[in-house]
Design goal:
Layout lengths: L15 H8 L3 E5 L2 E4 L1 H20 L3 E2 L5 E3 L1 H6 L1 H4 L5 E4 L5 E4 L4 H11 L8 E10 L14 E11 L2 H21 L4 E5 L10 E7 L5 E6 L5 E3 L20 E4 L6 H10 L14 E9 L6 E8 L6 H8 L3 E4 L2 H6 L13 H4 L2 E4 L8 E5 L5 E7 L8 E2 L19 E16 L1 H6 L2 E3 L5 E3 L1 E8 H11 L1 E2 L2 E2 L10 E5 L5 H14 L4 E4 L6 H11 L3 E5 L7 E6 L5 E5 L3 H4 L1
Parallel strand pairs: 3-7, 15-17, 17-20, 27-28, 27-29
Antiparallel strand pairs: 1-2, 4-6, 5-6, 7-8, 8-24, 9-10, 10-21, 11-12, 11-21, 13-19, 14-15, 14-16, 18-19, 21-24, 22-23, 25-26, 29-30, 30-31
Helix pairs in contact: 1-12, 2-6, 2-12
Bound molecules: adenosine-5'-triphosphate and magnesium ion.
Adenosine-5'-triphosphate binds next to strand 8, strand 21, strand 24 and helix 12.
């Protein structure tokens, strides 16, 4: 076996799965965001792939395989050549024609079905592939968890009706649950935003893991679970605009933070009150929003001052546009925007778009900037002193926030790794490419699609995150690189006996690794076996002379002596 285990953690590995997969000899870094599969890793990957194939076949999915190197045109037609921005690898052939390394294949699947199918009798159909994808991720990290080249299963459903799409979606949802159950993962299905893809219903499968990049919320009372990006904020009822006195502006020296502003407002009884809190202030964040192939727009987002703006939520809300914060040089170009003292009162006349957190409803009054250096205004009433252009989910979600689904419970925060993503694309791609089927009465029916992804290579790391301890990996049986790891120790005929046992077990369909290395101590072999993490270890050692071998189960400290002749029956 081509294998070298390492004693030391690789310097670049920040998360347990990455550390252990490299140390135990499963993968090896070959490029930034690119990994070589070593024999052990390849076995695990292949087992996952086999399970994915089985469950896709069970819902009638048929496998195809596209090139990864694709011409620009289809992605130009869908708009994604530009929309993807810096996230895709673009290249040019010797004739000067543009190509890309596909990040995902909606365009090609749509074109393939359009190419070959034309009648209502041809539908529905489910096609999929397991293929290497390329994305120029801004932050490749954590080994297999976020690569720039990775293996994905992408499936697409084609239906003639919305009901058909709902059914195809449900079938994939069930198939995914079966796949992840078989892989021994604990996961949560959360409702998600569909981001750059466009579309309606969308859910993500998140494997529970502390190192996960996705934060999601659950409810203390009901089974609501959602990506933080998808959490909606319940709006309070609108209030009475006329209940408030007129807006007034005040000098507020030395108030660089919301806290100092609130202290001063209470000390000076601004607006006749001494009960100000950060939640009564309105924080306005100025942003530059860039849409593909358009000039940047200035946008101001208002959130209650006791909350930060969550950039991931903000970006998801504005996707596919990208956002950046206004910097000193941007403010220099916009002298009307007084940095640190921005209030929404002036935004209407400046023709700057203003979006607010859903808690900022008509009839609420705020302490906010007075648009003059060193001054703030009180009784700035929504619907009277300013009128937002809409709402936006950009404020951070906090534990204890009310559940948007049941209203009774409150939200708790968890972390996970996105292992699968299913969504109802609808007709976006069918429209872009004119994918129709001729109906029974010869009128064209526009096809509706779903798209369903599984991060196959990422799964290796996600499983490792959930199945390891301080000694190494501890694979679930379904994906372990072998069922049994036989360790031969001692100087006698143990190696021969270990090989013979290995052959016997192989003949009965058990997947076996035999450690027959000469000149390696028993201690090192045991350490390696635990690091590699095969579910069962058989030690062929001292007691062989009496006819016994020792059975060990990974993850348990019990050891059992079993007569050699009974081991295969026992397993
Ligand atoms: P993420 O939010 O993690 O970037 P995504 O929303 O971009 O994922 P999709 O486009 O839905 O992902 O791709 C389908 C699946 O492919 C994801 O659910 C994930 O498991 C996997 N995947 C996506 N990007 C990567 C990557 N850079 N490395 C490894 N797997 C990935
Ligand atoms: Mg992504």
């Amino acid at each position: 076996m081509f294998l070298r285990t390492l004693r030391e953690d690789p310097a670049e590995a920040e998360v347990p799965s990455h550390r252990l997969l490299v140390r135990a000899g499963y993968i090896r870094r070959a490029a930034p965001g690119g990994y070589t599969w070593l024999p052990l890793g390849k076995r695990v990957l292949d087992k996952i792939v086999a399970i994915v194939h089985e469950e896709m076949a069970a819902i009638g999915g048929q496998e195809v395989h596209f090139p990864a190197l694709l011409p620009r045109e289809p992605y130009e037609t869908s708009g994604r050549w530009t929309e993807y921005g810096n996230d895709i690898f673009r290249l040019r052939d010797r004739r000067g024609a543009d190509f890309l390394l596909a990040p995902t294949h909606e365009e090609l699947f749509t074109l393939l079905v359009k190419d070959l199918y034309s009648s209502y009798k041809d539908f529905p159909v489910i096609l999929y592939q397991i293929q290497t994808k390329f994305r120029d991720e801004a932050r490749p990290r954590a080994g297999l968890l976020r690569g720039r080249e990775f293996l994905m299963k992408d499936a697409y459903s084609f239906d003639l009706s919305d009901d058909g799409l709902v059914e195809s979606y449900r079938m994939h949802r069930d198939a995914y649950a079966r796949i992840f159950d078989r892989l021994g993962l604990s996961y949560t299905i959360v409702s998600a935003m569909s981001g750059a893809m466009g579309g309606s219903a969308s859910e993500e499968f998140l494997a529970e893991a502390e190192v996960g990049e996705d934060t999601y919320v659950g409810c203390t009372a009901c089974d609501y679970a959602a990506n933080t990006e998808a959490v909606t904020t319940p709006a309070p009822p609108a209030g009475d605009i006329s209940a408030w006195p007129a807006m007034t502006a005040h000098d507020t020296p030395d108030t660089p933070t919301i806290e100092t502003l609130v202290d001063l407002a209470n000390a000076e009884k601004l607006g006749g009150r001494a009960d100000w809190t950060a939640a009564d202030t309105l924080k306005n964040v100025v942003l530059k929003v860039t849409r593909p192939a358009a000039d940047p727009e200035v946008l101001v987002v208002g959130v209650p001052g006791d909350r930060e703006v969550d950039m991931k939520r903000l970006e998801a809300a504005l996707s596919p546009a990208t956002v950046s914060l206004f910097e000193a040089e941007d403010f220099a170009k916009h002298p009307d925007l007084v940095r640190g003292y921005i209030g929404p009162q002036v935004l209407g006349s400046l023709k700057i778009r203003y979006l607010v957190d859903p808690r900022i409803v008509p009839g609420t009054a705020w302490l906010t900037g007075a648009n003059e250096p060193g001054r703030h205004a009180v009784n700035v009433v929504c619907g009277r002193d300013f009128v937002p252009d809409g709402t936006i989910e950009a404020a951070e979600v906090r534990p204890g926030d009310p559940c948007p689904a049941c209203g009774d419970g409150s939200l708790t925060m968890r972390r996970g790794i996105e292992i699968g993503h299913i969504f109802q694309l609808g007709r976006r791609y069918a429209e872009a490419f004119g994918l129709d089927a001729l109906g029974p009465d010869a009128t064209p029916i526009r096809v509706t699609m779903g798209s369903y992804g599984v991060g196959v290579s990422r799964l290796v790391a996600a499983i490792a995150e959930q199945h390891h301890d301080e000694r190494g990996l501890a694979w679930p049986a379904a994906v372990a690189p072998a069922d049994v790891h036989i360790v031969a120790t001692g100087k006698g005929d143990q190696v021969d006996a270990a090989m013979k046992l290995g052959e016997e077990l192989s003949a009965r369909g058990v997947d076996v690794i035999v450690d027959d290395r000469a000149g390696i101590s028993a201690g090192v072999k045991f350490t390696d076996a635990e690091l590699i993490g095969v579910p069962t270890t058989i030690v062929v050692g001292r007691r062989l002379a009496e006819g016994y071998v020792e059975l060990r189960r990974r993850g348990s400290d019990t050891r059992e002596d079993v007569p050699v002749g009974q081991i295969s029956a026992k397993l």
